[in-house]
């Protein structure tokens, strides 16, 4: 279903990763804002797994925004303090009016 423009009402910041040398032979990952857009966030799937003897929840979402050709799996969205890591990107329709991103909510 193609969203109406009025459904894209969540303010999202698209962030890109940068790896900066930490001086000790490694690197530190930092994130910088690429753009602020409006979109729709839909919860898709929830599942639980056991990690080191504790239950860990995993939540995936579909985030829909207006078409952009610069969003990849190397980006993430931030909305109201919640971080969504981009797992996959696809055109929402054949006219490329919208972009659908399958994302995983990051627990911090």
As laid out across the biggest beta sheet, the strand order is 1-2-3-6-5-4
* Cα Rg: 16 Å
Give the percentage of residues in beta strands: over 45%
Shape estimate = globular
**pLDDT average, as an integer?**
87
How many strand units?
6
Distance between the termini: 32 Å
Low-confidence spans: pLDDT under 50, at least 5 residues?
none
Tally of individual helices: 0
Describe the protein.
It is a single chain. The protein is an all-beta fold and 108 residues long. Helix content is 0%, strand content 69%. A six-stranded antiparallel β-barrel has the order 1-2-3-6-5-4. β5 (82-91) and β6 (98-106) form a beta hairpin. The protein is globular. The mean pLDDT is 87.
Draw up the topology in text.
Blueprint: E1 10-21, E2 27-51, E3 54-66, E4 75-79, E5 82-91, E6 98-106
Antiparallel strand pairs: 1-2, 1-4, 2-3, 3-6, 4-5, 5-6
Quick structural summary:
This protein is mostly beta strands. The chain is built from no helices and six strands.
Keywords:
0% helix, mainly beta, six-stranded antiparallel β-barrel, globular
């Amino acid at each position: 279903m193609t969203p109406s423009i009025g459904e894209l009402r969540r303010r999202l910041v698209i962030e890109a990763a940068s790896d900066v040398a930490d001086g000790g032979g490694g690197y530190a990952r930092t994130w910088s804002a690429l753009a602020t857009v409006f979109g729709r966030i839909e919860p898709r799937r929830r599942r639980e797994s056991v990690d080191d003897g504790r239950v860990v929840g995993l939540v995936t979402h579909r985030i829909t925004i207006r078409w952009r050709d610069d969003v990849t799996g190397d980006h993430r969205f931030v909305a109201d303090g919640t971080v969504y890591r981009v797992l996959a990107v696809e055109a929402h329709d054949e006219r490329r009016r919208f972009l659908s991103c399958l994302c995983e909510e990051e627990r911090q």
